Amino acid sequence: MGGQQAYLEAMEHRRAVARPATDEGYRASVDRAVGLLAGRTRCRLAEAHRHLLQLAADQNRDVADIAAGVIGMLDVPEPADGRSPPATVLPAPGRSSGAGARPGEPWVGVVQAVLDLLPGHCALLTPLRDRRGGLADLVYAAVTPEASAPDGRRGSWLVGARLREQFPESAAGERWAVYERVLDTGEPAELGPFTIGEGRFTVRAHRLGSALFTTWVCHGSGGGESDRIAGTEQLGNLGWGEWDLVSGDVRWSAQLYRIYERDPALGPLPTAETEALTVPEDAPLRVAAAEAFARGERVDLTCRVRVNGRIKYLRTVADATRDRAGRPLRVYGIVQDVTAREAGARRLADVEQQLAEQRRSLHAEHELAARLQHIILPIPERPVELPGVKVVVRYLPAGQENLVGGDWYHAAALRDGSVLLAVGDVAGHGTLAATTMAQLRYSLRALAVTTTDPAELLGHLNRITCDLDAERPETAATAVVARYEPLLRRLTWAQAGHPPPLLSRGGRTEPLARPAGPMLGVVEDARYECAELRLALGDLLLFYTDGLVEHRYRGLDDGLNAVIRTVDEAVAAAPRQPLAELVSRLRQANPDDDTCILAVRPTTGTTQDLRGYLRSR
Q: Region Disordered: which residues (predicted)?
C-alpha cells in the first residue's frame, strides 16, 4: 500500500494548493460569511445567519456555496465614509503609545459604535503625554449618548474635549494619579464617591488598548420612576413629545432632543422646521399620515429626516385627545430612531441583490464552461474497442451546478498498434479550468505523434502547464499517462501528482505503486519516471480523478477504501462483465468536484461483454 500512502500525501498537498474542503473549512466559511454580513450590515449575528440560510433555501443551494459568494463580495475593505465603522481590531492591551490613540483612529470608531447602543455614562479617553512620558491630559475619544459634562455638552459633542478643561480639579487630586496608574499597569480601579458641584459620583476606570475606559454613576439624583423612564428611552433610542393645540405648548423629552441633536435650551423644533427636515422623497408619506390623522386614526409612520447633514430614519407613533366632534385637542407621540435597523435591512437587501447578480454571472460562466466542456470532452456512450483492450468512460459532474471542473481523459490507438490512455485534472473550476483542460488534452494528442513514452509526454505537458502558469498564475494540474502494448500485454505508465490506477486481479483490488513525478505546472524542469505492468485476461484497471475518492464528509483513506470495495464487489457480482457492473455502481456524484473514470479490461479481440448492458441503458 506504499502507492496509496504516496497518493494520500500528494492529495493533501494539492488540497492545500487548490481547494480546502474539510469540515472545519466548511464551518469556517459559513462563520466568516455570517461575520462579514453582520459587520457590513450592522445586524446581529443570528439575523445574518438566518438570512444566509434563507438565501440558500430560496435558491436551493448549499449554504457553503452562498457563504463563498458573500465572502468573495464582502471580504474587501469597506470605504471609510465616516458612517460605517471599519472592521479593525483593538490594539493589544499593554501596548500603550506615547501619543495615545486619536479620536479619528479606526478602532475608536468601533468603540463608538458600541457605545452608541449603551445607556448610562461611559467614555473612552485617550492620553496625552508630556515630554517625560507623564500623563498631561485625557481627551474624549468616544462616549455614550447619555454622557455629559459640567459645561452642558452631552454625547458626541464631548468628543475632542479635554478632561482638564471639564474637571480642572481632577488634575490636582488623587484621581489623576489613579488614571495614570491604570494606564501604566492595566489594573482597573474604582474612585469615590466624591463630590463634583452638587453631585456625588463613583468612577470606574479600565485600560482598553492604549486608552482609558471610564464609567461613572451619579448618586442621589432622585432615581425613581423618572430615571427608569429615561433609561427605557435611552435603551430603545426613543423620545416622547406632547403638543397642546389649545395653549400652543410643546414638550419634548430629553431623548427627543438627542434624536434631533438639538440643544434643549433652544426648546422644541417648530412644526414647520420639523417638516422641513423631511427628505423630499418622503413628503408624500407625511401627507398621507396627516390625512389619516385628520380622520381620527392613529399614525404610525417611518420616514427619513436630515439632521446635521446626516440621514436618519425616524419612526413616529402619534395619537390625540379629541373633543366630541373629533377635533384634536392634545397630540402626543413617540419618536424612535430606527436608523440602524433600517440601514441594516437596506444593506441586507443590497447584499442580496449583489449576490443575485453574482449568481447570474456565475450561472452564465457555468453555462459557457459546460458547453465548452461538452465540445472538447465528448463522452462515448458505448464502450470503446481498442487494440487488445476495452475501455468504458464515465463522467460524473459535481453535485453543485456551478462547479464545472477540468477533469479529462484520452483513449486512442497509436500508429504502432499500441494504445494511449490518460486521465487528468486541472485545479479549479469554471471556464478557466475547462480551457486549460482542453489545451492539455489536445496537446497530449498532438505530442503522441512525436513520442509514445509516458514520462516524456508528461514532461512536455509540464512545460506547457508552466507556460500557462506564467500567463495565468496558480495554474496546476495532475495526470496519469499510460501506453498499452497488446501483443506483450505490457502497460507502461507515469504520473504527475495523480492518484495511482487501481488494479483488480483475482478478486483483490490494490493501487499500483506510483513512480516519481510532481504535479504539472509546479517545477519547470521536472522529471518523470515510468513503471511497467503485465496485464492478464480477467484483470481490470481503473483510472480516475480525485473526485472519486475525495469528499467533504470523509477522509481520503475512507474514500479510497470505499472505491476498492466497490471494485471488488463489482467483479464478484459479474465476473464476466465487470466493466458494466462497475460503472453502474460508480455513478454517485461528488458535491464538490467532477469525476472522470476510465475503466480498462484486456481482451482477446472477441469479448463483447458490454453490449447488453449498454442496450439496456
A: 79-103
- The H helix count followed by the E strand count for the chain is 17, 21
Place of cell 438566518: 50
Check: CB of residue 216 under 8 Å from CB of residue 204: yes
In terms of Cβ atoms closer than 10 Å to its own Cβ (0-12, 13-18, 19+), residue 479 is: buried
Q: What is the pLDDT of residues 523-541, one digit of tens each?
A: 888 999 999 999 999 899 9
Q: What is the DSSP string of 93-146?
A: TT---SS---TTSHHHHHHHHHHTT--SEEEEEEEEE-TTS-EEEEEEEEE-TT
Structural contact between residues 380 and 393, judged by C-beta atoms closer than 8 angstroms: yes
Rounded to 5°, the CA angle 352-88-347 comes to: 20
CATH of the domain at 175: 3.30.450.20
Grid cell listed for 141:
475619544
Residue with cell 444566509: 52
Look-up of cell digits 460562466: 365
Identify the helix (H) or strand (E) that includes residue 160: none
**Measured between alpha carbons, how far is 56 from 451 in angstroms, rounded to an integer?**
50
Longest Cα pair distance anywhere in the chain, in angstroms? 113
How many CB atoms sit inside 10 A of residue 515's CB? Answer: 19
The amino acid at 536: A
pLDDT at site 4: 43
Query: Which of residues 337, 362, 389 is at a domain's end?
Result: 337
Structural domain containing residue 294: 238-337
pLDDT of residue 498: 94
Please tell me whether residues 184 and 322 are part of one structural domain. Answer: no
Strand partners, 315: 302, 336
Q: What is the residue-wise DSSP string for 411-425?
A: EEE-TTS-EEEEEEE
Q: Is residue 47 part of a domain?
A: no
**Cα distance between residue 144 and residue 150, in whole Å:** 16
CA distance 178 to 192: 12
Angle CA(304)–CA(306)–CA(310) in degrees, nearest 5?
A: 110
Whether the model clears a pTM of 0.70, i.e. scores above it, the answer is no
Instruction: Give the integer Cα–Cα distance in Å for 510 and 264.
Output: 85
Q: CA–CA separation, 617 vs 614, rounded Å?
A: 5
- Which DSSP helix (H) or strand (E) runs through 514? none
Comparing 391 with 15, the larger pLDDT belongs to 391
Within 10 Å of residue 121's Cβ, how many Cβ atoms? 17
* 211 & 242 share domain: no
Task: Report d(CA 82, CA 499) in Å as an integer.
Answer: 54
pLDDT in tens, 345-383: 676 667 667 666 766 665 565 565 556 555 556 777 788
Residue 183 to residue 209: CA distance in whole angstroms:
9
